[in-house]
Write a structure and sequence with these properties.
alpha+beta, Butyryl-Coa Dehydrogenase, subunit A, domain 1, Butyryl-CoA Dehydrogenase, subunit A, domain 2, Butyryl-CoA Dehydrogenase, subunit A, domain 3, 3 domains, four-stranded mixed sheet, four-stranded antiparallel sheet, 12 helices, about 50% helix, about 15% strand, binds flavin-adenine dinucleotide
Length: about 375
Amino acid sequence: MISFKMSEEQRGYIHSVRQLAQQEIAPLALQMDEDSENFNWHYINILARENLIAPIIPVEFGGRGLDYLTIAMIVEEIAAACAGLAAAAVGTMHAVLPLLIGGTAEQKQEFLPGLTSQKPALASFALTEPQGGSDIESNHTIATYMGDRIILNGLKDYVINGAVAQFVTVCAKSNTTGKRAFQFFIVPANKIKVNMIRNTMGIRYVNTAQLAMENVALENRYALGQRDSGYLLLTQTLDIGRTLIAAIEVGIARAAFQLVLDYSRDREQFGRPIFSNQGISFPLASMATSIEAARLMVWRACDLIDKEEDFTQASSMAKMYASEVAQNVTTGAIDIIGAAAYDTGHIANVYFRDAKVCGIVGGTNNIQKMIISSLL
Ligand SMILES: Cc1cc2nc3c(=O)[nH]c(=O)nc-3n(C[C@H](O)[C@H](O)[C@H](O)COP(=O)(O)OP(=O)(O)OC[C@H]3O[C@@H](n4cnc5c(N)ncnc54)[C@H](O)[C@@H]3O)c2cc1C
């Protein structure tokens, strides 16, 4: 039987995270968008206090050990308050995933508890390179194996949390001849050079950086899994990560929708609220419907992950559809609010800019279509 009801536990989580997000995060979202030059740890302190940076981490390593469905619900709440902050948390969870799936107990014990203490800490997942993000075979970052040491060289770009991470989970080529020959490495921040901080259009709160590794020497304990075995780890990480990015997209859409619904009931033209025109209320009806549909797709994909069933197609569908919904709803919000929302200092403008990244990050919509069609 299919249930659309949250459990009591989920209801409790959502209630407390929504309260926290709306009281402590949302009121600062505009300011965080504007003052994004230097990373502001205030938000991260709030999440660390509640152990919400990476609630994916199992209880035995200090985390909350939540299922993916509950995590997606939490991510939606945070994203509805500030998508950039949700991206910082989801970026950290991407960094944790290869470790959770392919790391040894010793590696988990060494690297995970640092992300669960009250001390604010973030991690990064570094796959994309300047020459491209979609075609990972074109990656240049290379691991050279020298006895009990591994030497990493390469550039990684658009890395969320890049300049403020405690460690970066780096995907590198582990063989110059073989196809799909990769390995992941946990690289401590002090071994990585920050080349530049990206000045992004949206999700401006989160730090996004280009990173360089120049003859970074690592002991074997920093390598995840076996040499050349990282491709499976990569696809599993990306498949799961997509559902969390999709939850951010739903959060952005929801926030923009609520804003414009309230606005259209207040704003009067021709002596009555603009909502009383079907030209306004009908698009709002469509927005509300599409947000519900996107959320259900995210929940379904997460439910499949939690039940250890095949979820690859469902996660790509959820990510692609939710990104379209986020972009449509935030564009519609600007249309309905009008001139005021065209100002970069209006929160609707922030939602619009934040939503634009949704069709790019975690694999573009064309890449999602490639995955979905390959599984038809
Ligand atoms: C704000 C932000 C944060 C990010 N955070 C991270 C991060 O933390 N870690 C990380 O590793 N990466 C991150 N990325 C990178 C992101 O994952 C890549 O941008 C994305 O995978 C696309 O890569 P690209 O931008 O190089 O585009 P390209 O791969 O160069 O693609 C360009 C265009 O061609 C299309 N295309 C490519 N191949 C095909 C094909 N076969 N068929 C049809 N169309 C195709 C794409 O859809 C796209 O429209 C981030 C990006 C942004 C903008």
